[in-house]
Amino acid sequence: MIKTTGGKKADTVFVLIIFSVFALSALMVLMLGAGVYRNMTDLASEDQDERTLLSYIWTKVKNGDKAGSIYVGSFNGLNALCFDEEFGETIYTTVIYRYDGWVYELFSEKEIGLLPEDGQQVMRIDDLLFEDFEYGMIKVSAGTRSLLLSPRTGSVGIKSDEAYSEGRAP
Fold first, then answer.
1. Is residue 23 part of a domain?
2. Angle at 94 between CA 111 and CA 98, to 5 degrees
3. CA nearest 91: which of 111, 72, 117?
4. Residue 98 Cα distances to 4, 34, 64, angstroms
5. What percent of the chain has a predicted confidence (pLDDT) above 90?
C-alpha cells in the first residue's frame, strides 16, 4: 500500500478554506446587523426628540394661552414662536426659536435687543419651523412631525405625516 499525503493536505486546505469563508460570512452578517441596529436607534432617538420638543411647545402654549398673546414672529431674523405677558406696565416676551442647531428659549422685556445666543438652550434639533396656519392656528414642524396649535382656545391637533388626531399632546 502506498501512502499519499497530498490528498490529506488538499482535504485540510479545503476544510480551512470553507471554515474561513464561513467565518468571514458570519463576521459580515454581524457588521451589517450592527449597522442596521445603529441606524434604527438613531431614527428612534430623532423621533423621540421631535416628540419631546412638540410636547414641550404644546405645554408652553397651554400654560401661556391668553387672547392674542401667542404668535409667530421673528427674533433677530430667526423664525420664532412668541408669547407676550404683561407684568405691571411692562410687557415681557418668551421667544422659542432654533439657532445654531439648538432650540432656545428666551424670556425678556419685549424688544430690548438681546441676541440669539443670549437664550437658554433647550435641546438639539435639526429642524424647527413655526408657521401661521388656517383659521388663526399655528403650525409647528419639527423634523417629520407637526403640531397644530389653536391659541386663545387651548385646543390642539397633532399631525404626523397625513394622520390627524385631536386634543392630546404629541
1. no
2. 95
3. 111
4. 78, 33, 20
5. 34
Which pLDDT score is estimated for 5? 56
Per the CB < 8 A criterion, the answer to whether 119 and 106 are in contact is yes
| Separation between Cα atoms, residue 105 and residue 107, nearest integer Å | 7
Q: Which three cell numbers stand for residue 39?
A: 441606524
Predicted local confidence at residue 23, as pLDDT: 92
- Which cell is 73 given? 414672529
Answer whether residue 144 is part of any domain.
yes
Does residue 142 carry a pLDDT above 80? yes
In a domain, 49, yes or no: no
The CA distance from 70 to 84, in Å, is 7
Instruction: Share the mean pLDDT of the chain.
Output: 81
Q: How many domains are there within the chain? A: 1
- The stretch 3-17 carries a mean pLDDT of 76
Confidence of residue 166 (pLDDT cuts 50, 70, 90): very low
Nine cell digits for residue 14: 479545503
123 Cβ contact list (under 8 Å, min separation 6): 49, 52, 53, 56, 102, 103
Is residue 26 in some structural domain?
no
The whole domain housing 97 covers: 54-166
